[in-house]
Amino acid sequence: MPQQKGLARIFQPPKSAMQSGRAKSQGWVLEYEPSEPKALDPLTGWVGSGDMLGQVRLKFESREQAVAYAEAGGIAYEIEPTPPTAAIKPKVYADNFRFGRVENWSH
């Protein structure tokens, strides 16, 4: 495999703002950093770039798999540390109507 230019970053994507749990946020992603800035096309007004590696987004089940892929391909990489995650407190709808509830009614 030929040497590829550019720096890749390996990170664990955050959970979507539309989800309350951590499903589909356990994998690792390898993305290339942009090698050239985006430019405005004078004819169409669209923003574009000649950087084809900017479209590559590889997903892996573990950090070790992503690192092994990068090292096997001769890709320079940076690993972003995973941010600490708070514990998810389970909520039960029936607790809103619990006898002896101390909290104020919220809705």
TrEMBL record:
Entry GO terms, CC: membrane
GO biological process: electron transport chain
Name of the protein described by the UniProt record: ETC complex I subunit
Transport keyword on record: yes
Gene3D superfamilies: atu1810 like domain
Positions of region (Disordered): 1-22
Organism: Neoroseomonas marina
Location of this chain's protein in the cell: Membrane
Pfam family, one: NDUS4
Protein keywords: Electron transport, Membrane, Respiratory chain, Transit peptide, Transport
